[in-house]
Amino acid sequence: MFGLSQRGKPQGKSRLGAGLSVVLAAMFALAMAFAAPARAQDTRLPVGVSFSILADIVKSVGGDRVDVTALVGPDQDTHTYEPTPADVAKLSGTRLFFVNGLGFEGWLPRLMKSSHYPGQLVTVTKGLKPRTMVDDGKAVTDPHMFQDPERVKTMVDNIAAALSQADPAGASYYAERAKNYRGALDDLIKWADKQLAAIPPSRRVVLTSHDAFGYLGQRFGIKFLAPEGVSTQSEASAKDVANLIRLIRRTGIRAVFMENISNPRLVERIAHDARVTVDGKLYSDALSKNPEATTYLQLFQYNIRALATAMKDNR
């Protein structure tokens, strides 16, 4: 279902290359799997979602029975987002508000306090054990669980359970869609394993903007280096930047990426000083406005394909 060609290094739109038709076919097959009809109803269940990636997953489970409103849109940074009065108005009409939790939405406590939200707050990472990481010398929780499709399956179950509780008449509909989506995630993991199989562990090293890919790295044996910490609000120290430049020069790392939500200047500076070329961008905390990553499944495919191609050039 997810078997795609890896020929050539992706650049811009050409990264999709000949694999575009296969991706679209996979998306169509998934859509057909979700074709179970919803009960005709005059009003869909209104739900709010904190950011674009999670909004797509909620839509995939909720289908025609939900009306999804996302606060942080495509190519926007959830870490630095500042809620507005318009966000309070958006939430006031929803019955559920789905969030990642684990500190990913640092603005969430302020929003909840100012909005007096009357609905149910649903943390989709509930029941999952987070990984810890060192950020600025301190042990912190990594909130980016959505970068691991295996963990996303539990998030899907949590979403289906919350929707079913709020809309009991749609419980079987949500359960069927959740089952289909978990199957698509299983296929995605198998596909990713095949794309990465030919790359030796010693070459599975990548430099990117902030430390958002730890769960992906843990699942697929990739080491991610980042000048910024777990949040894009972190500031890279001159010492850390210098250490990264020396590491790239010494080890022959060539897989260097910026992110769709981050200012590219720091990564470009590191790449210039280390005498390497930036391979392009990865989609970290948001979907894209362009056609490359408008769904979570597309985002993950794009990232894996780009990573696999770039890591082959590592020495």
Characterize the structure shown.
- With 315 residues, the chain is α/β, with parallel strands linked by helices.
- It is 42% helix and 13% strand.
- The chain contains ten helices and ten strands.
- The protein starts with 18 loop residues before the first helix and ends with a helix.
- The N terminus is likely disordered.
Would you summarize the structure shown here?
Helices cover about 40% and strands about 15% of the residues. By secondary structure, the chain is α/β, with parallel strands linked by helices.
What's the CATH topology name of the largest domain?
A: Rossmann fold
* Mean pLDDT, all residues: 84
Please tell me what the overall shape is. Answer: globular
In this structure, how is the largest beta sheet organized? Answer: 4 strands, parallel
**Unreliably modeled segments:** 1-41
Count of extended strands: 10
CATH class of the largest domain: Alpha Beta
Number of H- or I-type helical stretches:
10
CATH architecture of the largest domain: 3-Layer(aba) Sandwich
Strand content: 5-15%
Rg (C-alpha, Å) = 20 Å
